[in-house]
Amino acid sequence: MDLKRAAMFRFSKFLLIGMIAAACFGVGFFQKFYELLVIPPQIGHFSTCSAPLSGNREVLNVYLTETAFAQSMQEQLCNNPVVKRQFGNVHLVVGQNDYDTFRYINHGVSDLALVKSNVVEAFSANLIYDYHEIAAHASYSAYFISLREKPVLSKEYLLGKKVGLLDYPSSRSGNIVPKTVLQSLGLNDTNVNIQYYSSHQELRRALLDGEVDIISSYWAVDDNTRLSRNYITALEDNVSGMRWYLKMQKRNTDLRCALQNVIENATRTVDKRYYQQVEIIDRCSHETD
After folding, report:
1. Together in a domain, 262 and 129
2. What is the pLDDT of residues 67-92, one digit of tens each?
3. Residue 168's domain spans which residues?
């Protein structure tokens, strides 16, 4: 009996120690998990109106993926009569990466957003939150761009090459399209040296500095002065351009018309030529004030 009691005591002791260890592990895990959840997004720009527009507690949330629009959009939104009538303030955010876009679009935080159509469709945000396309910038082509020779779309040519891509999984020209082309040729990051960069501007800098042999991007007007069109190879034509989406869970047609006017006016002040042309979708037939 003493041996049996001793064995049961040892078993109970080990069981208790195991339960304590598991509890400590669980507390540590959930503490870390919680810390991961509350990590703030890497927002590149955040602004509001210089003073409240009214006593209204409703806020117009705007999410952009392009800093060129930030100042002009903020000024025009804060002075727009329809916005001032319907909202107490404007919160404008310029995201820095896909995590920010996921947070603001997938969770339906933004009322107005400038993003790519594939992002909205991937999250089904157009179905869940009634995001409607109200304006669009032009579609474009995706290219492999080199400095001293025209890239060849073959496995033999690309093997061992240093290829610069965007560190944005949602980017069509800088990530999705080139990776699809590489995979179709039987290539991946094990036999191609893929290096990631934070922007299209950084891709061009890396190419000019000799850090990479090829980059994947669009062809910008400024590229005509520093790169050669003879050394680009088309990967895909008609890549969907940037789109303006408005959350239309309410049939707020006055706001829709007002924001279309704001977008159209903002494009006239943007330095980047790509954004200077915009197509208004289902243009309002009457002005609002």
Report:
1. yes
2. 888 889 999 999 999 999 999 999 99
3. 140-239
